[in-house]
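Hi U.,

Before I forget, here's the chain from the pilot set. I'm dumping it here mostly so it's searchable later in email.
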Amino acid sequence: MIKILDYDKVSSEEIFARTVNEADVSGIVKDIIEDVKINKDEALYRYCEKFDKVSLSTLEVTKEEIDEGYSNVSDEFIRILETAAENIRNFHKRQVRNSFVMNESEGIVTGQKIIPVDSAGLYVPGGTAAYPSTVLMDSIPAKIAGVKNVYIVTPPGKDGKVNPVILAAAKIAGIDRIFKVGGAQAIAALAYGTETIPKVDKIVGPGNAFVAEAKKQVFGMVSIDMIAGPSEILVIADKNSNPDFVAADLLSQAEHDKLANSVLITDSKELALKVSDSIEKQLPELERYEIARASIDNNGKIIVCDNLIKAIEISNEIAPEHLELCVDNPFDYLDKIRHAGSIFMGRYCPEALGDYYSGANHTLPTSGTAKFSSPLSVDDFIKKTQYTYYTKDAFEKVYKDISYFANQEGLTAHGKSATIRFEE
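Structure:
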């Protein structure tokens, strides 16, 4: 059963405790990465047999397989995927940055160029669930940024095929190539390249502890989006909230993972008790009951505090991945929220709306990193290059300042590079 905590009667450690991925898989992942670096495709085929229990004849998904997968998805779901994709495009188009140039002084030009990375690899989880939403959320910002080559890596099923809904989403998103490989070995392949899978510049997407550790280890060889921890939801709800709505929203996150964190902060003890009762009523109805049960029992909590302002203060300290404001007039509180990955406002805005449909991205900072990190966006797929131009006359006005500055740092060669241009 979910814990109910009175904010003023328990320790701060109990209030702010959260689960983390505790399994140390660094050694295993390091060995896998080294194997893929050396043996390339041969290692990938071997790991596919070991972990996915299937022997593949080729790693790349063919156009025929993509078309077949697309045709096996219902017209209704295709319509929903296309609508979701359009919402995501409309949201992320507004994130596009522009290059700029400054020419405010005679003889001086400075500026910044916005350049997309050449290639990006998207990890799409398989296993217990398929996530076409991840395909859309991670690939559409890359395409809007102008990335020329966008690839997917995803584990195959025991039939050697990729889930049709993944293939349908990939076709709608305009993915360039898809590869049947998962786990740490997929991240290694994207980072270093194999005979079949090209090396990329950026790797994004969620995964299990092995995938997260692999992303950590290859960072520097490639760029990554973030190291994601267990999924989180925090709901701030007042006494007028429907307890069944709140309970359902907490369970929507609990079903992700036994390590998921579901937290309610409320100013109403009565609501807290009703939400707890509703969770117990709704839990047996879930297909992923055992996962949600473990998550709620081990990591779920309801925090009762004096008022909504205090609730927001607690939330800002937790810095949740998903934050729901189930209150009257939620926009009155928006400016007070400083740290959250994505905010869902009002009584008819469950976190699931953002997971699939609204257009805002669902790849979000976890484990308190919302204090200094942002949701996945177009910015993740661009880099900035700056440039400077001075004419001789313009530089002659400042070269002595440059030399003086350099000499203050003891870098006399820097200073000489400025003065030498005006020595007789």
